[in-house]
């Protein structure tokens, strides 16, 4: 299921009288720019936001940080990593200047991401978190609390709601599938070329 700023706007419009919102985060991430919009919408809605983290991977961390109280589950995943672009979404033909422009945009997005992190967890954690991001780190529950991403642990009594989730490809799964497909295509092309060369002999 797609969770976007439109989803959040519809929810806020439908619950204008609510004084508190509890957001359960169970996500492998997605668009950092969309996550920033959702973060700003939640921060600016005038309600008390509490977040519960079960799978707080990639840009989902931005959503998790929107909570004043941020509770993380004992066995949570909290992966932080550098900003990257899905190569399969890029044009096939790119010149050097195009690549430089993409690199500049990625670097700008990276700064925005770390700035949001540090606005919540504190500037004193910037260097360590930047290093952990560069290494693509899956933070433990205790590490998330120590660094300030989470304010505490989810209690045993607080259980995740059952949900029917669609099976979807993550970017990495899709990339792997496309890589295998490309290898198969290369094998087929080589086989055709071999046949042609045999006829020439």
Give a written overview of the molecule.
The chain has 201 residues and is an alpha/beta fold. Helix content is 49%, strand content 16%. The chain has 7 helices and 6 strands. The chain has helices spanning 5-14, 32-43, 60-64, 96-121, 126-134, 141-147, 171-200; strands at residues 20-27, 48-56, 69-77, 79-80, 137-138, 152-153. The strands form 2 sheets. The protein has a 4-stranded parallel beta sheet. The protein has a two-stranded antiparallel ribbon with strand order 4-5. Helix 2 links the parallel strand 1 and strand 2 (48-56). The chain is globular, with a radius of gyration of 21 Å. The N and C termini lie far apart (56 Å). The relative contact order is 0.12. Residues 157-171 have low confidence and may be disordered.
Which descriptors apply to this entry?
single chain; 201 residues; alpha/beta; two-stranded antiparallel sheet; 7 helices; 16% strand
Summarize the structure.
This protein has 201 residues and is α/β, with parallel strands linked by helices. Helix content is 49%, strand content 16%.
